[in-house]
Hints:
heterodimer; A: 116 residues; mainly beta; B: 114 residues; 6-stranded mixed sheet; 11 strands; 0% helix
Amino acid sequence: DTGVSQNPRHKITKRGQNVTFRCDPISEHNRLYWYRQTLGQGPEFLTYFQNEAQLEKSRLLSDRFSAERPKGSFSTLEIQRTEQGDSAMYLCASSPHTGAPNAEAFFGQGTRLTVV
Amino acid sequence: GENVEQHPSTLSVQEGDSAVIKCTYSDSASNYFPWYKQELGKRPQLIIDIRSNVGEKKDQRIAVTLNKTAKHFSLHITETQPEDSAVYFCAASSGLVGANNLFFGTGTRLTVIP
């Protein structure tokens, strides 16, 4: 499968625990995005990487959230001290850098987080 | 920042009829408008997109129109089929530094009745 891959697909955690998700983008896509989607809503932007540089962060990304892309390939999203309000689908997307300001973003299947 | 509104939130059509979903956006700098289809439990998948240098784009049964002056764009699906049933999201992006992400609408749940 050469699409965007996310692991795990599902995560149930107790409130207060830390969780980490992984995203493997499409090979050679140098742009990587994290979005959060709650039931009945569209995806909301969290953060964006170009190669290993984190270039944009949403105000939704509180200090309990941290994302990395150390080698410009896969990325991790960590949530510390999880809260019930963090329960959502976390989607990763990647796109190639074509020189144009926008290029098609391909989404992964997401990690569904449930905080109990 | 950008604000994208989408209507209707639900839409039911008879198989073979057309479906139209409308979106408005607030940021005049937005210049890229993709539409995503998301089936239950699956990833959003791009079905069509349009850039601000064109007013209309068509791909088989799917078409998108853009009115930059009015800041609205629409998705048109003709000859609908049951497999078109899904949630459709519109989105907008300016691609400017600091705004490279997509802003999504709240989605339209389309049901095609056989």
